[in-house]
Specification:
about 25% strand, about 325 residues, 14 strands, 4-stranded mixed beta sheet, homodimer, 7-stranded parallel beta sheet
Chain lengths: ~325, ~325
């Protein structure tokens, strides 16, 4: 069997997760990892795969079927996805929701001009959560969507705490409020405020001699990040933080409740949830499944930018249509 | 806007549900209902829609974009889907899992020869549950699937009880065992027996003078239907059955747990569940969403038999690709 040749751009948590996920998919092989750092300093986990400098990427265009872009949405992907879609079929996890339409248009024009496929905004939100919102909305047009995130680590919120004067290290968990979940599942379609949906729990290591009261106050009143939430702050030692809070768990819920019937008297609840030990490894696993779809679309000449909403589900699976019908339908 | 013209074949619970669902979708209109009964005896709930005898269906082939087949899988659909796909784009809810590959082949040949689209085995299982098994399996190749059904009414099991000597009426609920659900969600990938996964609860109205002990024994020892389950039997009056057990609720859970990481040390849980007040109305709502997809595929000339695994998600939605990207992604 001809294997699908995968390249990775960026070797942080997500890129490393993609490397590990490729090992779990026997129809794929990792060809190389591209980095802005000195490639000789990278130690890959894959026999036969090579670390390259990012400037060498375009030279590899005929040796890689799909390049998985593992940079961040703030500054990397808005530049990298358009640039590398000139040479490669690409997958990205662009997650700045408000800028997705613009990103799509930019990438679509380049992908079509270059005869490439680019599947953008892949992961779990956007990604699997978007899919579930769409399916549930199409089935129950009279209804209401709810999305809850957590329990999980928010890197952005953890970073925001670390920037506060006197803070040495910190980890922040976003937690859905159980009563809010129950209210949604009841089908009563409640209107929930930001504060009613999630709480925030912070584990903070203060620098020697820092004013704990002032740090706590700075966290709890931080606009956008914490002020609209019920926030709990725990001061702990660096050892305890390292020991108990070094993982990157996450998860969440997409729930739609809706009605059918002559008098819209029948209530229905559709719920999708994930509970992840490792957010980057799960996201990476979604990217890799969509890399298979990008490869197949490219073989068919179905070029352009795509999102998870455009991809026939069977394109993600290693199994054939006949196997899927016999085993999974 | 040109509306999608829908026909319904069969006017039982499912057909009536399709009629109600079409009213919730402003891009569709119901043209007619086809029945084996005397059409003058049908009272439709849709202004402008006409009841026809099934023998008139082929005459209507140019007036209907998609015909939704609402018969049963045992004897109706194996005949009707092939027959009516000669004249119409069709949707069916064929759910005899073991016979799906054969049904697919038969319908595919006819659909391709007739330039029609037929989406088979649509509903929730097969249907939405199949989709979720497939997505989760593609994302977490090292893992295990579990499907639980209920709490809900099984028509087949209720019918089986009604055939027992001395039984006047009956309703049977299939109930997932909470401890089994918890064991699965723990990620430990337990092997569960039939008995460990579901219990069965029966509400039975006995005929005057019937031997209750004998009825209970007959239920609990019935092979395939009840013998492999912990079954509870309650004898109640016809009035109580009518009052408390006249609904057709159902639901269920599809859970996949899997692992990622260097040493496969990270556990993940993906769970999809539905909780339905009306099984036929929910199933009908799924059929109607896929009718939209069949219409679009047919406009593209993408003919043949399809399943939910083949259909790009966006084809189900009334919204455009640009709207979906802006609002749902």
């Amino acid at each position: 069997m001809e294997k699908i040749k995968i390249g990775i751009l960026g070797y942080g948590n997500l890129g490393k997760g993609v490397e590990l996920s490729v090992r779990q998919n026997p129809d794929m092989e990792l060809v190389g990892v591209f980095t802005r750092r000195d490639p000789s300093q990278l130690t890959l986990n894959t026999e036969g795969a090579v670390a390259y400098h990012i400037d060498q990427a375009s030279e590899m265009k005929d040796k890689i079927d799909v390049l998985i872009l593992c940079g961040g949405s703030a500054t990397d992907l808005p530049v990298q996805t358009p640039e590398f879609t000139r040479y490669f079929n690409t997958i990205d996890s662009f997650d700045t929701h408000a800028n997705i339409p613009g990103h799509y248009s930019t990438v679509d024009a380049i992908a079509k001009a270059s005869n490439k496929v680019s599947i953008i905004s892949v992961g779990w939100d956007p990604g699997m959560f978007s899919l579930n919102r769409m399916y549930a909305g199409a089935i129950l047009p009279d209804g209401k969507d709810y999305t809850f995130w957590g329990k999980g680590v928010s890197q952005g919120h953890s970073d925001a705490i670390r920037r506060i004067d006197g803070v040495q290290d910190a980890k922040q968990y976003t937690i859905p409020v159980p009563q809010a979940l129950d209210a949604v599942r009841s089908g009563k379609q409640p209107e929930l405020t930001t504060r009613e949906k999630h709480t925030r729990e912070c584990f903070v290591v203060a620098k020697e001699g820092a004013d704990l009261k002032k740090i706590e106050e700075a966290i709890k009143t931080m606009p956008k990040y914490f002020a609209d939430y019920d926030t709990t702050v725990h001061f702990i030692s660096q050892e305890e933080l390292n020991e108990k809070h070094s993982g990157i768990p996450h998860g969440g819920f997409v729930i739609r409740t809706g009605v059918t019937g002559k008098a819209l008297e029948h209530h229905h609840v559709i719920e999708y949830s994930i509970k992840l030990d490792s957010n980057p490894e799960f996201t990476a696993s979604v990217l890799v499944a969509y890399a298979r779809a990008a490869y197949r679309l490219s073989k068919e000449g179905n070029y352009g930018a795509k999102t998870v909403l455009d991809i026939p589900p069977a394109y993600l699976s290693i199994k054939s249509g006949a196997e899927l019908r016999a085993e999974l339908l």
